[in-house]
Task: structure prediction
Amino acid sequence: MTAASGEADWIDLGPAEDLAAKPLHRALLRTTPIALSCVGGVFGVVSRTCNHVGGPLDQGRLDGDYITCPWHGWKFHRVTGEGEPGFEADCVPAWPVKVENGRVLADAAGATPRRKAPHEPHPLARAIRREPGPVRVAGLSTTGMDHANPRFSGSDHLLDAALAAARAGGAETRLIRLSELSFRACEGYYSKAAAACTWPCSITQMEPADQLDRVYEALIHWADVAIVATPIRWGAASSLYFRMAERLNCVQNQVTTHNRVLIRNKVAAFIVVGGQDNIQAVAGQMLGFFAELGFVFPQFPYIAHSRGWSAEDMARNVAAVRDSASLHEGAAELAQRAIALAAQLVAAEPPARISRGGRKAQRIGPESC
Ligand code: FES
Result:
């Protein structure tokens, strides 16, 4: 039975004594999932669905009378449904609640409306449109460095050579050193729920001080070419490289969850410098990851250098890189190959559609089951 229009429709949610023992939990108001809370003996009923991208408020934390969404921290008053101070106009539905004869009742007919007040979109969320101009090359240095006491970095040195060649060829360049940026590690929003991993990155949207926005801006909006340089550390790319790669999950997840390809007609190339070996495995990992982001590659998409297991004498390794005409020539030609491909891609139409069958996390049709 439902109430006639305009009449209250009080639904029994359970014994007040039991429910008071649960500060915040999920319940059903008829068939509607709600976040039922109790603070100081006062009950509150609001929608369990966050206004942002649908996070489960019933699984959030109570901060006084506000429920903090477990996905990205938006807050809603647990009784009125209003957003936190400054965002009151952003409301989730709330229902009247009373306690009668030891039972908690909510009026299913009395919901306040959901109102989504516009939040200023993050600048990275703007449409991706290549501005006219020459080919643009972003160099990403991933080596760790104390800039107050700098040292020679083979990977940085060859990246500088590649960018100098790019400029000499008429390209615009931008160098980003990850070691100069302050940015958080990925906190696994995708592991909370696919929708919790957002573009722009959840951390970037929540934390204005996080500086990985510069990498996103360069890779998604500005560059036609990304040249990523890394040292080898214990047989793998640098820790800063992986820290960045984890944060780029949000770019790849847009493809997985929304078939939204943020990287189109862009080229990636790599510079790998090791004290020991494992260059092919390091380059292979980087190629695989950047391919899944949507980049394409020039012929011979990486250059590398290593003196090997039995020649780990860094002074000579520095000299080998710094003084090697062929490595400098190789870095310059790597940039030139990448730019030549990018110039073709910039002039080309991207494919209208890419089949998702066989792609990461895409279901295959029932005919194959
Ligand atoms: S803050 Fe609730 S879904 Fe993002």
